[in-house]
Structures are given as C-alpha cells and as structure tokens.
Amino acid sequence: MPAIDAHQHFWKYSPVKDAWITDDMKIIQRDFLPEDLAPVLASNGIEGCVAVQADQSEEETRFLLSLADKHDFIQGVVGWIDLRADNLAERLTYFSKYKKLKGFRHILQGAPAGFMLDPEFIQGVKTLADFNFTYDLLVYQNQLPEAIEFVKQLPEVKIVIDHLAKPSIRTADIAAWKRDIASIAIFKNVHCKLSGMVTEADWKNRKADDFIPYLDVLFDAFGAGRILYGSDWPVCLVAASYQQQLSIAQTYLSTFSEHEKLLVMGENARKFYNL
Predict the structure, then answer these.
(1) For residue 104, what are the β-bridge partners?
(2) Taking the domains of the chain in order of start, what are their residue ranges?
(3) Largest Cα–Cα distance of the chain, in whole Å?
(4) Which residues sit opposite 227 in a β-bridge?
(5) DSSP structure class, residue 261
(6) Cα gap 32→55, rounded to integer Å
(7) Residue 188 CB burial class (10 angstroms; 0-12, 13-18, ≥19)
(8) Is the pLDDT of residue 253 over 90?
(9) d(CA 150, CA 113)
(10) By the 8 A CB rule, do 193 and 218 touch?
(11) 3-273, what's its fold?
(12) Is the pTM of this model over 0.90?
C-alpha cells in the first residue's frame, strides 16, 4: 500500500499574511502549490497527502478545498474554523458537504496560556465529533501539561498531535517532554504525527542520531498503531530536503515489521482521517 504524507501545507505567499515566515526562512518566502508538491511525492513513492491550514480563516479552508477539488492526490484537508463562534454548528453543517474536509486545527502554539482550556473552546472542539471531524493539536512542548488537561475533557474527539509537540531537539532537552508525551499518550483517542522534527533540530548541524531518542520515546508511548508520518513540507525545506526528512523516518522504521511500516507510513493516516 503506497504511503501517505499526513501533514503538508500550500500557500500563495504574502509577507503580511505569512509574517511568521521570517527572513531566516527565506527559502520558503514564495508560493507553494500542488504542482510543486506532486512530482516530489511521486518521486518518493507517496500516493497522497493531507493539506493542513497555515492561516486562521475560513477563506484558508476554502482555498485548500479548492485545491483538493482539482488534485486527486490531495486526499484530505485540515481546515480552520472559529471553534468559539455562536454559529459553529451551522458552519460545520455547511462544511460537512465537502467530502475531502476531514478536520480542523487552531494554531495553539501561538495562543496565550489557558486558551485551550477556555470552556467555549473545549465545547467547540467537542462539537467536531458530532460531525465526524478530527482535531489537529499544534503545541510546543512547554504547553503539553495544559494539553493533557485539554484532551482529558475530549474523550470522544479524534485528536492528533502535530510535530511530536515540538520538542527542543536542538538543545537535546528531553526529560520534561518525555514525561508529558507518556502522560498524553495514555488517552487512546490521541495520536501523534512523526513530522516537523528537522525544524526543531539544529538546521545546519544536525546529525541523524539527534532524532533517535525522540523517536524512541514516541514509539514507546504511542506504538506503531497511533503514529502518522508527515513531512511538514514546505516548512521542512528550511532545514532539509523532502528526501532528507523522509529518510529519517524510513531509516528509523527499517527494523520494524512490514505491517508496522505500513501503519506509520499510510494506514494510520487513512484510518484517522477516513481518507
């Protein structure tokens, strides 16, 4: 079964809208669209992808859906919606007609402390389950204690943590992250993406071995049945080529069974997002 890239982005670059793309990330200060990604996926034996929001607007959701409508290899979309809106159910009803829309994400890594525990926000995420939508949880490692309290209140929602919760690989600071990943993995509705690691490492001086302790923790906590491979393309390009980031996952998985490889590299994404 061909692989799935469960996490990538498209955008038409705007210095204002995409102000998070700083000058040290100059390589990605341009448009990235399906025609840029299609040959990359094909050359790496990857059948399809899940496009994830990068801008917090319904316009972004519609933009990704319009791309998915034109390109079969975009098998799923994770959009944005105002999860605290009074008319959330009405908006989710509207978006339910789009078969490739699989879930939603809010950029919690930039949110103030306590935001994700706001009762209105939690109720909004709860409502996603009523419409069979998933939730992508984007946090930094220091937000994991709050994220544990968040997921505790959402047993019915299919949740996936993006980018291993962004551990500080560049400083090899692992203890607190390891403890919190083990705690959040106890909740069986929570999955995790094997993605975004190269940008959390030293961009210029990373070594292959830098990632192994983090991957060991991840697989000990979640097992091969709840981990989804994702590239985080094109963001990954600030630190590594597509092939380089992919090879980190493939090399680590080389000692796993064929069944486990299939799960991580595609089957888990198909099941989680109902692709």
Answers:
(1) 79, 135
(2) 3-273
(3) 50
(4) 192
(5) H
(6) 14
(7) exposed
(8) yes
(9) 12
(10) no
(11) TIM Barrel (3.20.20)
(12) yes
